[in-house]
C-alpha cells in the first residue's frame, strides 16, 4: 500500500506520495497561493530549471527541448499550449496546476525521467495520461518501470456531470457497440468493479470519478495496481487545503511538480 504524507515548507502544507519517493515532488495546497513554479521549484530542488505550459484541456504533451526555454524566461502569453510535460534530461522540474482536475505525476524508476499531466474530463476523454506514457516509451521507458500518482482532485461522489460527458470519458475504457445505444457505455461502466460512475438524483446526470477512469485506462494499458496510487483527498470537499472551481467558481489553482533524476539513480 502506497502512503501519502503531509510535509510543511515555511509552515505551509503540501503532499508527497511514497510511490514517488525516488523523485523530489510535491502536490501543493491552496496555502501556497499565489506562489507559482518560480517560487515552488526551490522547495524540491535548489537549481533545477522549471517548465510549465498554458493549459487548454487538450492532450498535447511537450518536452523542455520542444518548449525551448525555462518558464522563468517566458511571459505567460509566450508559454506553449499543452496539458502535459515530460523531461528529457536530469534535474528538470515539470509543473501542472489544477483546481478540480487531476494532477498526475509519473516517474520512470530506471531512466529517472518524469512527467506531469493536467487531466480533467476532457483530457481524460482524449487519453492524455496515456499520451504522456507513450512519449516516455518513445524515450526508452518500459511500462513495468513506471510509477503513477494521481493527486488531489474532485471525488466521483460529488462530481455531477451530464450523461454525455460520462459517456465520452467512459468510452475510453468501455467501447460501445456501434449498433447499440450509446448509453450502453454507462451500463458497462456500472458493471465494473469499483465503478467510475455513480447514480445522480437528476435523471440526465451521473457522478463521474475521473481518477478511477484514469486508473482503468492504465490497467488496460498493462500497468499493475502497485504502480498506481490515488490520493485520498478531494478538492471539492476539503476547502481548508484545496481550491475547487466547482465549489467557488473562482480561478485559483494549486500546483503539482516533480523533478527528474539521472538514469540508474
Label the structural class.
alpha+beta
- CA radius of gyration is 18 Å
Q: How many β-strand stretches?
A: 15
Mean pLDDT over the residues: 96
Strand content bin: 15-25%
What percent of residues adopt helix (DSSP H or I)? Answer: 10-25%
Describe the structure.
This protein has 265 residues and is of the alpha+beta class. The strands form 3 sheets. It has a 6-stranded mixed β-sheet. Strands 5-6-9-8-10-14 form a 6-stranded mixed β-sheet. It has a 3-stranded antiparallel β-sheet with strand order 11-13-12. It is 23% helix and 25% strand. The mean pLDDT is 96. It contains 8 helices and 15 strands.
Can you give me a brief rundown of this structure?
With 265 residues, the protein is an alpha+beta fold. The chain has helices at 37-44, 64-67, 121-125, 128-138, 163-170, 184-191, 210-221, 245-248, and strands at 4-9, 12-17, 25-28, 50-51, 61-62, 84-86, 93-98, 102-108, 114-119, 146-150, 160-162, 197-199, 205-208, 228-230, 254-259. Strand 2 (12-17) and strand 3 (25-28) form a beta hairpin.
Write the layout of secondary structure elements.
Elements: E1 4-9, E2 12-17, E3 25-28, H1 37-44, E4 50-51, E5 61-62, H2 64-67, E6 84-86, E7 93-98, E8 102-108, E9 114-119, H3 121-125, H4 128-138, E10 146-150, E11 160-162, H5 163-170, H6 184-191, E12 197-199, E13 205-208, H7 210-221, E14 228-230, H8 245-248, E15 254-259
Parallel strand pairs: 4-7, 5-6, 10-14
Antiparallel strand pairs: 1-2, 2-3, 3-15, 6-9, 7-15, 8-9, 8-10, 11-13, 12-13
Amino acid at each position: 500500500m502506497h502512503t501519502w504524507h503531509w510535509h510543511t515548507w515555511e509552515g505551509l502544507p503540501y503532499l508527497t506520495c511514497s510511490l514517488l519517493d525516488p523523485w523530489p515532488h510535491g502536490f501543493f495546497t491552496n496555502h501556497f497561493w499565489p506562489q507559482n513554479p518560480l517560487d515552488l521549484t526551490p522547495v524540491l530542488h535548489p537549481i533545477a530549471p522549471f517548465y510549465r505550459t498554458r493549459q487548454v484541456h487538450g492532450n498535447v504533451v511537450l518536452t523542455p527541448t520542444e518548449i525551448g526555454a525555462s518558464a522563468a524566461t517566458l511571459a505567460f502569453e509566450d508559454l506553449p499550449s499543452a496539458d502535459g510535460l515530460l523531461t528529457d534530461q536530469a534535474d528538470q522540474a515539470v509543473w501542472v496546476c489544477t483546481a478540480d482536475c487531476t494532477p498526475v505525476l509519473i516517474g520512470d524508476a530506471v531512466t529517472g525521467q518524469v512527467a506531469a499531466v493536467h487531466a480533467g474530463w476532457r483530457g481524460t476523454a482524449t487519453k492524455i495520461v496515456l499520451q504522456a506514457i507513450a512519449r516516455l516509451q518513445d524515450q526508452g521507458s518500459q511500462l513495468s518501470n513506471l510509477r503513477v500518482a494521481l493527486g488531489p482532485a474532485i471525488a466521483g461522489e460529488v462530481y455531477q456531470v451530464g450523461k454525455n460527458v460520462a459517456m465520452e470519458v467512459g468510452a475510453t475504457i468501455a467501447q460501445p457497440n456501434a449498433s447499440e445505444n450509446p448509453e450502453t457505455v454507462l451500463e458497462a461502466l456500472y458493471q465494473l468493479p469499483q465503478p467510475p460512475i455513480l447514480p445522480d438524483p437528476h435523471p440526465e446526470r451521473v457522478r463521474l470519478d475521473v481518477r478511477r477512469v484514469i486508473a482503468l485506462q492504465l490497467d488496460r494499458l498493462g500497468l499493475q495496481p502497485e504502480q498506481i496510487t490515488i490520493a485520498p483527498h478531494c478538492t471539492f470537499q476539503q476547502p481548508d487545503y484545496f481550491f475547487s472551481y466547482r465549489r467557488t467558481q473562482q480561478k485559483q489553482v494549486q500546483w503539482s511538480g516533480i523533478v527528474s533524476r539521472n538514469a540508474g539513480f
